Amino acid sequence: MPATLVLCRHGQSDWNLKNLFTGWKDPGLTEKGIAEAHEAAARLKAMGIKFDIAFTSALSRAQHTTSIILEDLGQAGLETIRDQALNERDYGDLSGLNKDEARVKWGEEQVHVWRRSYDVPPPGGESLKDTAARVLPYYVYRVLPQAMAGKTVLIGAHGNSLRALIMAMEGLTGEQIVKRELDTGVPIVYHLNPDTTIASKQELKG
Q1: pLDDT of 161 above 70
Q2: Is 9 annotated as contributing to ligand binding?
Q3: What mean pLDDT is predicted for residues 171-194?
Q4: Would strands 187-192 and 80-82 be described as parallel, antiparallel, or unpaired?
Q5: Angle, CA 61 vertex, CA 57 and CA 63 arms, to 5°
Q6: pLDDT tens-digit profile of 98-123?
Q7: How many domains does the chain have?
Q8: Is the pTM of this model over 0.85?
Q9: What SS3 state is found at 73?
Q10: Of 10, 36, 126, 158, which residue is the catalytic one?
Q11: Mean pLDDT across the chain
Q12: Residue-range definition of the domain harbouring residue 19
C-alpha cells in the first residue's frame, strides 16, 4: 500500500482577510478560516483517512487548523510535532504591511519581484529558495521516514512552506512553483511509491 502524505495550508487568517504580509507574525484564524478547517476534515473523513502522526509549524494559525482537523476526525490526542522549520516564509520588513500600501511605497514591479521570484528576498526576509533550504531537510529527515514506514502523515503548514515541499515532491522548477496557488484549508492527498515518487495526488476542493 502506498504511503499517504496530506498537506494542508491553514484556514484563512485575520491578516489574509486584511491583505497583509504575514510571514512569521502570528494572527489567528477568522471565522471563515475555522470553517475551512472543519470542511477540510469533512473531506478527509469522506475518504476514510485516519492519521498516525501530524506535523505543523510554530505558528498558531497552522496549529489551530491542524487541531480542528484532528478533533473532527476523532483524533484530538494524536502525536503532533510542532517546528519552526515548517513556518511560513519570513517576509522581513514587509511583515504586517498591507500589500497595496507596499506597492505604493516600493512600486508594483519591485513588490511583484519580492512576492513571485524564487530567489530574491524582501528586505530582512526570506526568498522562497531560503524557505526551501529550511523546509526540505526537515521533510527529508523527520517527515518522510514516517510516511515511508507506512504511516499516514498530516502536515498543516503555510502557502510558501508547502510550496517548497511541493516543488521537491513534484520536481518543479523555481519558476513553476512560484506560479502555484494553494487555497486556504484545502487538503492535498499524496500517495507515495516505495521510492518516494508520487503514485497519485488529489486536491480535496469543494
Answers
A1: yes
A2: yes
A3: 94
A4: unpaired
A5: 50
A6: 999 999 999 999 999 998 899 999 99
A7: 1
A8: yes
A9: coil
A10: 10
A11: 95
A12: 3-203
Confidence of residue 1 (pLDDT cuts 50, 70, 90): low
Q: What is the mean pLDDT of residues 20-30?
A: 95
Q: Is 38 an active-site residue?
A: no
Residues 6+ positions from 200 with CB-CB distance below 8 Å? 2, 190, 191
| Catalytic entry in 36, 88, 126, 158 | 88
Is 10 an active-site residue?
A: yes
**pLDDT beyond 80 at 133:** yes
The response to whether 110 counts as a known ligand-binding position is no
CATH of the domain at 152: 3.40.50.1240
Longest C-alpha distance within the chain, in Å?
53
Q: Which three cell numbers stand for residue 146?
A: 514516517
CA 195 from centre of chain: 23
Residue 115 marked in a binding site: yes
4 in a labelled binding site: no
Task: For the beta carbon of residue 95, count every other beta carbon within 10 angstroms.
Answer: 18
Whether 116 has a binding-site annotation, put simply, is yes
Q: For residue 131, give the C-alpha cell.
A: 524557505
